[in-house]
């Protein structure tokens, strides 16, 4: 009797073959369903991305009835790449109900830095003018720490006030005009402004301007905000 092992693989019977075909079919269907689901998720993500942005790819702002917190989040997102005049906080003045936008990194130590800071401020100014909270106008302001021989204290460095109609009258390329060295006109065109002496002292162009214009609305609006 020949007991040598066979080198042939065992033959599957018809039942085994049919069962394997069913398993393969189920796996194929599951794979197709998974791929379709992934494709749908990708399409939805693309649609949402386009819906949340303007044609130029910038994020869409909230509706005209947005709260100060919503406007703040939008501005911080829209102008996240600003290397000057960066958005710190947005709120409404208690007394005047003017929309208050606090800025950081406004540098007037040179002509170039001033042009850069105030041109970006001009962009931000035009971005907020359509909101209901801006109906009373908008004040952009900055607060810095100043040290004298006897004291060290936070003070209002600058504030510039535009009413809504004045903002709407600005040309769409106004920030480019400011960038080209015409930044004193941002203050001259404003409905009111304030420039702290130590803030503007390094800048010859700003030193030629009067220190204030319609200061009362500025002081009433920033009351309690300089800490």
UniProtKB/TrEMBL annotation:
It comes from the Bacteria. The chain crosses the membrane at residues 31-51. Keywords: Membrane, Transmembrane, Transmembrane helix. This is Uncharacterized protein.
